[in-house]
Predict the structure.
Amino acid sequence: MEQFTVHTGTAVPLRASNVDTDQIIPAKYLKRITRHGYEDALFAAWRSDPGFVLNDPARAGASILVAGPDFGTGSSREHAVWALQDHGFRVVISSRFADIFRGNSGKGGLLTALVAQEVVEQLWAATEADPALPVTVDLVARTVAFGDVAAPFEIDDYVRWRLLEGLDDIGITLQSAGLIADFEARRPTFAPRTA
Amino acid sequence: MGRTLAEKVWDAHVVRSAPGEPDLLYIDLHLVHEVTSPQAFDGLRAAGRSVRRPDLTLATEDHNVPTIDIDKPIADPVSRAQVEALRRNAAEFGVPIHSLGSQDQGIVHVVGPQLGLTQPGMTIVCGDSHTSTHGAFGALAFGIGTSEVEHVLATQTLPLKPFRTMAITVNGVLPDGVTAKDLILTVIARIGTGGGQGYVLEYRGEAIRALSMEARMTICNMSIEAGARAGMIAPDETTFAYIEGRPKAPTGADWAQAVASWRTLVTDDDAEFDAEVVIDASELTPFVTWGTNPGQGVPLAGAVPGPEEFADPVEQEAARKALAYMGLAAGTPMREIAVDTVFLGSCTNGRIEDLRAAAEILRGRRVAEGVRMLVVPGSVRVRLAAMAEGLDRVFLEAGAEWREAGCSMCLGMNPDTLKPQERSASTSNRNFEGRQGPGGRTHLVSPQVAAATAVRGTLSSPADLAPVA
């Protein structure tokens, strides 16, 4: 996983709450068996509307998505994270994230920065006024900075550490292989097996 | 201080615990399907890793399989490639699989309980958010992403931060004609799609104790629609009776030992929940959604709300967008909304009791002209059981379509979809924009409301139907 420390880019204001993962990537794109190549699938239904914010040429190259509360609700599809990354997003900023989406983001290296809704509103206004406005997301300092605003964001300490180090979870867990084997020896005999 | 049910199951599965780090939790059962697993198996291959416990892993094909012509190759080449990838991966890594055509194929959350694999006190995961279904047995069961699927395949564990706990206490008795689906849709409308975030919900109280296992599964299934990680119900005699004798249930001395252990899986009297919601069952009525998230619901007897009825400006804006997408005007009585399609099925309401309840209403009646009704059993065994009872004939004689098992129109990955602007009454779990097909409009309903709606052609409850002559 790619390390994440400080990222500066331009932002896309997504003025919607409850952006569920069916909107982020509709189910028909989930038939693919690869981990990349979902750029075309991101917000596919909404992008058919020429007025949708991602279709604005001024937003080309943006890497920070700023969304309303309850971003990423619904299905557990990690394809939602992959589609955002394939499109070039490194950060999603919202005042509330769905749990599974947030977990998936942390695994894949997409930073989910949780800020107060008023910061979302400020950022929406600022980037709508100036699409080229640089926004800096600093994972070390846990701040989002734009114009003369610098606001703190929340992220789980452990997720932050893994992102900063770019660490792979499975590798960390396998260091505990002995403890896993010990646990397995203690499991009840009545626990079911599939085969 | 005492512990809650969720905390007891959690504590019993901690492999490793260290300050400042997530707990490493052992996973008793990992269910796998074709959509969220191929990239995980690729990851294992790339790293030269194996599946640690194939004997605690089970694969089934459900999300994008067709519900007609299942004896022929899958017509859509992309769907076919994904199903074939699952079969290849299962063979290569030694994972048991129930493929299309097998008697044990079906929706992953119907298959687990049916086989007796879902048991109290277990930790169960699947790359599917509706894994919360299995919590009906007092298991801690939750959906995970593909990276976590790979993690569980490789290690049979997951690093997790403890969840908070919320009691959903449902006192009293559900009135006649009010179902588990109405209850959970009411809960979601009450606490919102984000109300359960970070929580495991424990459903308790007199009304919950009175429910069958299948009704309990309907409730736990939709916990995720309130944003919760999991939903749980403490096991009791109803649970034990459901499990006993199933293919993977404990037998002999193991059964006695298991039941004795399962009886300890109750929230202690002096345990404290982080939050509690209390609901009076006697006040509930049939409940349906009007909008584009499962929290946007009203009683069937009510009307489409106007945006100004919401205090929160974010909810007002969401309501405006939902009304535009759904093609509805505020103030329209819900009962006057006409549908094109009725979908009966899914991991929420695709079990035998759901089919029986709908068939009971359709017996001697006809699906309204111009309405298409799809009946999709949750599994092959549900389908066969329904046929043994003659339910297939009831559906067919009423003019409904009787299909093979799968997820079908719940998420429209297979050919069963709505056309743009088509409107459905659906027993599934999500009314998101385009969920059942691009531009499709979904109203979430109970099986009883689905059947009555099919007959009248507008959202209806069985009480709205004229008696069968």
